[in-house]
């Protein structure tokens, strides 16, 4: 693991700078807008704009990379992300901020594509799993730690935007100076959602609901924190607990799904998430911030694990040579959920108070539970020994698919 991480250290360092900045920025937007009249509605729309940009970038950013190359594309995308982060400090305007987040989402997808294709070009068949793990730890770890940057905000409200912009600009340095040869951009075609649904209805429904849930958490959990009088430091800690809890529970719950019918695990996970969401509502109603903080890692772990378990379930019904394109289709389905979810969750928060976020998540998880129970009645289970080993993939772009250790084998590197 250490030798693999060392071989792509410059790339992972660039990812770390990006996620430190992007993680802090998404929470900062929620905090800044929570006190406005539009409140959750504005945050929901701005969050949807970011995921719309991410989806468009997943579909079209590869054209920029193919035309000018990885390093030039990375530099351009990172520069736009950095400038747009700093532009938030000019004035607070919902349409303007939505446009900035749309551009950032597109460029973040381009950055993910550059990094992921670079990692895939560097990896061998033996090291793909370790490289994917290092990438996952960097993504989630930096995003979770980045929340603590909010403690550096000042009364004028400008310093934190400067820090975020600086970090995103610094992402350019290790990548621009890397001596690793830029790879060819892999050709990743995505399954259509209909074809994927025919292969695994529960898998597609699950990743769609997962996108709606996690997109709402990233965008609107800071609004809940502000409304719960957590303050900036408390909200930063709350968000870190959610994200790092999501990283910690993926492996144990994923391994559990290797031993049993994955549908049973998805049903249990979704039911537990629905109950945990109701517990968050109860704790909020009793004004118990400590209870909310203690339950946050479990809530985040259940929320962020739904996607990889549903992905693994879908891959159990897909041929090995189609795993890469299937994962690309699932990421797009997840992104569509992330576009739709935040506006719906914000509407529930506007109607029922900040606890409406958890009511939305409880409802979404309940839908996944009921649909999973129905699927067990119409399709026989796949034997546990016939299931492929669990492996978590990040919810970034379809380009991450070739890093899947159980995907199509790469030709051996020339000696």
Automatic annotation (TrEMBL):
Keywords, alphabetical: Membrane, Plasmid, Transmembrane, Transmembrane helix
InterPro entries per record: MFS, MFS_dom, MFS_trans_sf, MFS_YcaD-like
Name recorded for this polypeptide: MFS transporter
TM ranges: 42-61, 73-92, 98-119, 131-150, 156-177, 202-224, 230-253, 265-284, 290-311, 323-345, 357-374
Pfam families in alphabetical order: MFS_1 (PF07690)
UniProt key word Kinase: no
Region (Disordered): 396-415
Keyword Metal-binding: no
GO molecular function: transmembrane transporter activity
CDD domains reported for this sequence: MFS_YcaD_like
Domain Major facilitator superfamily (MFS) profile, chain residue ranges per copy: 199-415
GO cellular component, one term: plasma membrane
Domain of life, per lineage: Bacteria
